[in-house]
Specification:
The complex is a heterodimer of chains A (132) and B (67). With 132 residues, chain A is mostly helical. Chain A has five helices and no strands. Helix content of chain A is 86%, strand content 0%. With 67 residues, chain B is mainly α. The chains are: A mainly alpha (132), B mainly alpha (67). At the A-B interface, helix 1, helix 3 and helix 4 of A face helix 3 of B.
C-alpha cells in the first residue's frame, strides 16, 4: 500500500461519509424527523473512515506518514476554513428555515449536525482530489 | 503561489530522480512534490531545506522570488 492509494482511500471514504451526512441532513429536514435512517449509519461511516486511516498507519507506516504530509495538512486547513464559513452561514439558514416551517428542535439539531459534518468532509474530498 | 518561482522539476530531472524517489527521500507524497513543481503549493521552510539537501543545491537555486 503506497501513499497514493492511502490518499485515494481517504478521499473515497471521506466523500462517502460526507454524502451519507448530507443525505441524512436532507431527509431529516424533509421528513421532519431527527432519525430519517438509523442514527448509527453516519456514525459508522465516520468511525469506519477513522479506523481505516489508523489501520493504514499500522499496515504501512512509512506510506501513511507520506500520505499525511504537509500537503494533506494544507488541504485539511483549507477544508476546515471553508467548513467554518459554510456552517456559520448554514446555521442562519437552518434556524430561519426551521423556525418558519415550524419543524422540531431535535430535527434541527440532527439535520444541522450532519450538515456540519458534510460541510467539512465533502470539500476536503474535493480539494484532496484536486490537489496534485 | 504567484510570488514564488520553483526550479524543482528541472533540478530533480537533472539529478536523475523521479517524483516518487524524491518524495520518498524527503518523506512526503508524490502529490506534494507535483504541486510544488507546478507552483500550486508553497512548501514549508523545513521541506524546502530537505529538498535542497536531497538535490544538493542551495535554497536560492531551488526557489526564487518573482519580480
Amino acid at each position: 500500500m503506497n501513499e497514493l492509494s492511502i490518499a485515494r482511500l481517504r478521499q473515497i471514504m471521506m466523500a462517502g461519509t460526507g454524502i451519507v451526512c448530507l443525505v441524512y441532513c436532507f431527509l431529516a429536514a424533509v421528513w421532519n424527523t431527527p432519525q430519517p435512517m438509523a442514527w448509527y449509519i453516519p456514525a459508522t461511516f465516520g468511525s469506519g473512515t477513522a479506523i481505516a486511516m489508523v489501520l493504514t498507519a499500522f499496515v504501512a507506516p512509512k506510506s501513511a506518514e507520506m500520505a499525511f504530509d504537509e500537503g494533506y495538512r494544507h488541504v485539511a486547513q483549507k477544508a476546515a476554513a471553508l467548513a467554518y464559513w459554510v456552517s456559520l452561514f448554514g446555521f442562519a439558514v437552518f434556524f430561519i428555515g426551521f423556525k418558519s416551517l415550524g419543524l422540531d428542535l431535535t430535527t434541527l439539531v440532527a439535520s444541522f449536525g450532519t450538515f456540519m459534518g458534510a460541510a467539512y468532509l465533502l470539500p476536503f474530498a474535493y480539494l484532496d482530489w484536486k490537489f496534485g | 503561489m504567484g510570488e514564488l518561482l520553483s526550479h524543482l522539476k528541472a533540478l530533480r530531472t537533472e539529478a536523475g530522480l523521479t517524483q516518487a524517489q524524491l518524495a520518498e527521500a524527503v518523506g512526503v507524497s508524490r502529490k506534494t512534490i507535483n504541486t510544488v513543481e507546478n507552483g500550486v503549493f508553497v512548501p514549508s521552510t523545513v521541506l524546502a531545506l530537505k529538498l535542497a539537501r536531497e538535490l544538493n543545491v542551495s535554497l536560492h537555486e531551488l526557489f526564487e522570488l518573482k519580480d
